[in-house]
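Revision sheet: C-alpha cells.
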Amino acid sequence: MQIIRKKINWRILISFTIGVLAASFLFSNVAIGAVEISSIQFIGQATLPKGLSFQKTEVGGLSGITYDASNDLYYAISDDRGQKAPARFYTFKIDLRQGKLQDKGVMPVGVTTLLNENGQTFSPGETDTEGIAVTQAETVFISSEGDVNKLIPPFIKEFPLSSGKVSKTLPIPEKFLPDKDSKQGIRNNLAFESLTITPNNQYLFTATENALIQDGPAAQPNVGSPCRILQYNLKTNQPEKEFFYQTEPVSTLFNLTGKFASGLSDLLALDNQGHFLSLERSFTGLGFDIALFQVFLEGADDIQHIDSLLAVNSQNIKPVQKKLLLDLRTLDVALDNIEGLTLGPTLPNGQKALILISDNNFNSIQRNQILAFQLKIESPLMRLLRRILPNFNR
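Predicted:
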C-alpha cells in the first residue's frame, strides 16, 4: 500500500512539475505577444486605372503603404520627386468584406500634400519619399532616400494626418549620410525604402535597401548585399540599435536587357519582440522577382558601433535570421514593381489580411498593382497546443 502511494505521489509531482514549466513557458511567451506566421494564401488583386488622376494629381509611384485600423483606411506614399505634383501621400479604401480583393476594390479617397517645417511644399528634387508608417497619435512617419548625387541627405519625419506639416525629424546617424568623396553613406536610390512601427508604438525600424558604401558592394547578379536595419526608440526619438540583414542573391537567367536591380524594399513589424516580414524585390531584365521572408532579430548582433563592415571580420557578426515565407513567382499573377506591404484588417474568417502595393514609376507599361493575402498568425500558446494536441483547431 505504501509503495502504491509513493508511485501516485511521484506521478502527481511529475505532472505538477510539467504543469509549472509549461505555465512558465506560456506566461513568458504569451506576455510578450510574440507571433509567427504559419500559412499565407493569395486572395486577389486590383489594378488602378492607368494615368489615374485624383484631386489634380497623377496617382503613381506608390512605394509604401500603411493601414490605419482605427479608421479602416490605408495611406500610400508616392515617390514622385515633385515632378508631377508636390510630395504627397494618398488615402485609400480597400474592400475586403468578402474575404477577398476584387479588381474594383481599391479606391482613392484623399490626398495629403507634405509640408516642411515652414509650412511650404518641398522643392522639386528635395525628396524621394519611399516609406510610410502610421502611429496611434494620428500621424505618419515618412522616409526619404534623399539624393546622393546632390548630397541631399535622407530623412525620417513625422507628419500629422490633419495638416501634413512636419512635426518631428529623427536624427540620422552620420555613417548613413552621403559624403562628397563617395567613401561612406547610402548609395543613390538604395537607402531608406522601408519603414515600420511596432504595435505598441515604442519602436520604429527602417533599413537600407542595399549596403552602405563602407559596408560592402551593392547587389549584383547572383550576389546579395549586406543591409543595415536601423531601430529608433520613439520615446527618446534616438537611434539605438542596428542589425545586419543579408539580401538574397538573385539569378539573372535569360537577362537579355542587361539591367539588374535588387534589394530590401520594405519591413513590417509583426509584434513588439523583433519579428518582421521583409519584402525583397528584384528586377532582372525580363520581370520582377518578389519574395516575402519572416525575419527574427533574436540572437542578432547590434552593429550600431561598427562604422564599416569592411573594416571588421563580418563573418563573426550574427545577422538577423530569416526564412522564406513566399516566392511570389509561384503565384499565377503577372508581378509588377512590388515595393510596399502592410497588415490589413481581420478578415471574415478571423485571419489577418496582408496588402502589397507596386510602384509603377509613372511608366505607361507598368501598373499600380495591389495584392491581397490571408495570413494565419499564431502565438506561442497556439503553437504549443498544436504540438501537444496534433488535431487541435484543425
